[in-house]
């Protein structure tokens, strides 16, 4: 039977490839972005309690109301927004499902979608499988600052959507207030939908502020914000997240969502609704992860790698141009097999796989693991 693939150039993700390589060669896995420590036992007990209390059938399609209320209260308190739990939030099977559903709800064949690269690898396939055209704009190492003039020049009458990601995976950079105001000005007077991937919103360092789209009313009215409980609370395997948007946008999202997953894990929703009662569960993450970033940076201080401290996320970019002329994919493979430390080569996220000689390391691991990895990197 002849199959005409809608994604002919999509293969196994780099995260799967590098994690398998790490396993096969008994390497320290600083590649795939998952925490190397357990989630809070209190949260786990809340899930068990919800199951014992009988919350084991379908949840409401939009999500459990008590959780939606906690989410909107959190956002409104942190960012001065005015999201409503009845109309403006949907609980999703992680941020990736939210992003795919957003694209499916709005992108038609030949619609143009602007994506800033390097970009998380779920954005482009979602656009392509729905017949849209990706318009990539490459950010340049090592600063990875957005060229807003390039963004403005990329907008055409066919532009339907724009993706931003702050804090940014894989680079660890963040957008500041000036960035957001420039973006707001560029989009003013257009019908472009903004998708703001904010899964690392609670992991920002050095006293800086997370510039959520929720802070900017003129952006809010055209935007989806996607977020992840898995990234926030160290349980990526639960695949739990949410998205918020104004009522008119959310209605269109839910039309697709109800035929995609309909609803997500009921006991976890009840647990998160209770867990979010205590703001310290997420407000303390900045300091927690900054300490881990600093442990890793100190551990590699004597190495030949170059580092600009990550401003957010739990990823640190290290440049290796002073070590080898190899491509980042070749060096990442050798680093895993010979030196037993796995990372992610970042050219795979770039336009035409442009190679800036940068590797991404995940520091969401126990301190002793980070120190052992750092000691190995110092020997290279």
Main sheet?
Answer: 7 strands, mixed
Distance between the termini: 51 Å
CATH hierarchy: architecture of the largest domain: 3-Layer(aba) Sandwich
Helical run tally: 15
Report the C-alpha radius of gyration, rounded.
Answer: 21 Å
What fold name goes in the CATH topology slot of the largest domain? Aspartate Aminotransferase, domain 2
* Strand runs, count: 12
Notes on the protein architecture:
The chain folds into two domains: 14-32 and 284-378, Aspartate Aminotransferase, domain 1 (Alpha-Beta Complex), CATH 3.90.1150.10; 57-281, Aspartate Aminotransferase, domain 2 (3-Layer(aba) Sandwich), CATH 3.40.640. It is 40% helix and 14% strand. The strands form three sheets. Strands 2-8-7-6-5-3-4 form a seven-stranded mixed beta sheet, with helices on both faces. A three-stranded antiparallel beta sheet has the order 9-12-11. The protein has a two-stranded parallel sheet with strand order 1-10. The longest helix is centred in the N-terminal third of the chain and has 15 residues, at 65-79. It has helices at residues 14-24, 41-52, 65-79, 94-106, 123-129, 148-154, 177-187, 217-220, 229-233, 247-260, 266-275, 280-283, 285-299, 328-339, 367-378, and strands spanning 28-29, 89-92, 112-117, 133-138, 159-165, 193-197, 223-228, 241-244, 315-319, 341-342, 344-345, 358-362. The mean pLDDT is 96. It is an alpha/beta fold. Strand 5, helix 7 and strand 6 (193-197) form a beta-alpha-beta unit. It has 15 helices and twelve strands. The chain is globular and about 55 Å long. It starts with 13 loop residues before the first helix and ends with a helix.
């Amino acid at each position: 039977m002849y199959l005409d693939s809608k994604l002919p150039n999509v293969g196994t993700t780099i995260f799967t490839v590098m994690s398998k390589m790490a396993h096969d060669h008994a390497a320290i896995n600083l590649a795939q972005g998952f925490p190397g420590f357990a989630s809070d036992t209190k949260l786990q007990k809340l899930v068990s309690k919800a199951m014992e209390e009988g919350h084991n059938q379908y949840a409401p399609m939009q999500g459990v109301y008590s959780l939606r209320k906690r989410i909107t209260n959190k956002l409104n308190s942190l960012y001065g927004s005015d999201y409503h739990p009845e109309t403006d939030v949907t609980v999703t099977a992680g941020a990736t499902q939210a992003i795919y559903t957003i694209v499916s709800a709005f992108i038609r064949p030949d619609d143009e979608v602007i994506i800033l690269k390097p970009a998380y690898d779920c954005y482009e396939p979602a656009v392509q499988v729905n017949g849209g055209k990706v318009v990539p704009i490459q950010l340049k190492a090592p600063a990875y600052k957005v060229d807003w003039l390039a963004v403005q020049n990329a907008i055409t009458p066919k532009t339907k959507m724009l993706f931003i990601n702050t804090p940014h995976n894989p680079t660890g950079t963040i957008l500041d207030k000036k960035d957001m105001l420039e973006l707001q000005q560029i989009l003013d007077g257009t019908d472009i939908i903004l998708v703001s991937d904010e899964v690392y919103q609670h992991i920002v360092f050095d006293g800086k502020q997370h510039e959520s789209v929720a802070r900017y009313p003129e952006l809010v009215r055209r935007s989806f914000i996607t977020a992840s409980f898995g990234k926030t609370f160290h349980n990526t395997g639960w695949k739990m997240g949410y998205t918020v948007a104004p009522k008119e946008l959310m209605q269109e999202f839910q039309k697709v969502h109800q035929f995609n997953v309909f609803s997500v894990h009921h006991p976890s929703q009840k647990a998160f609704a209770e867990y979010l009662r205590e703001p310290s569960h997420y407000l303390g993450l900045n300091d927690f992860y900054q300490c881990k970033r600093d442990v890793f940076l100190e551990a590699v201080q004597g190495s030949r790698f170059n580092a600009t401290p990550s401003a957010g996320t739990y990823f640190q970019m290290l440049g290796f141009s002073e070590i080898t002329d190899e491509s980042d994919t070749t060096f990442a493979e050798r680093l895993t097999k010979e030196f037993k430390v796995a990372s992610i080569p970042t050219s795979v996220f770039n336009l035409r796989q442009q190679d800036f000689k940068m590797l991404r390391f995940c520091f969401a691991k126990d301190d002793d693991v980070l120190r052992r990895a750092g000691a190995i990197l110092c020997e290279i």
